[in-house]
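SUBJECT: A protein chain and its fold
Encoding: whole-number codes for local backbone shapes
Chain under study, with its fold:
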Amino acid sequence: MNTELKARVLAAVAGEPSPTRRAVNRRNTLLNMLAGVSGMVAFVIFALVVSDSQLLRLGGQVSPRQYVERSVWLVATTAGGALGVAATALWLALWRGRSMLGRSRGSLLCGTALIPIGLFVWKVVCSLAFGYPMMEWPERPGLRCLALSLLIAIGPLLVFLAVRRRAPVRPALNGASMGVAAGACAWVAVDLWCPVASLPHLLLGHVLPLCILAAMGAVLGDAFLSIRSRRR
């Protein structure tokens, strides 16, 4: 770390009073509860408005003569795997690692890039393994899943930024990882709600929101997590 950056970090630390560990833990616990509640409320409201309160949708009408339904085991497998990936994303985004300055550029870049890929590959592989047809649904291109993902994730993303509060080094990358983590959490809920597994639908409705949230997180992280934002 160069001398100028070290001086800026030390000045920022000295200029802000340090709360007790208990106060920090209590604050972060409340904020994390708020993140979970905001996401669940958004999910429930969307389901009430769009799909007659169906939080879990196993199938649907592909065409007038064809109805497709997922097995419960397929849903459990895809959602369970997505939950594991989301937990990894949260660990990467919110835990600084061993360094006070946070994670390295390489780990943040790899995590931000690999988490969406991992979720997508897991969904496709599980669908193929369970023999679930990946046909296109003309009436469901993915726009509703895109909207649902963003609606669920925006609250948790803002909370994650508040929990982290500061990232003196690589604030934009840290913000991007938080955006992907929020999107990965939303992926779990959307996977329960959406029975479509066609590749165009997954790319538009499930993967694209993660990219949008990563970009949003990068912008917000650069604005609110950097040292210069504390000097304004």
Q: What stands out?
A: Residues 73-232 form one domain. The first strand starts at residue 59 and ends at 63. The radius of gyration is 20 Å.
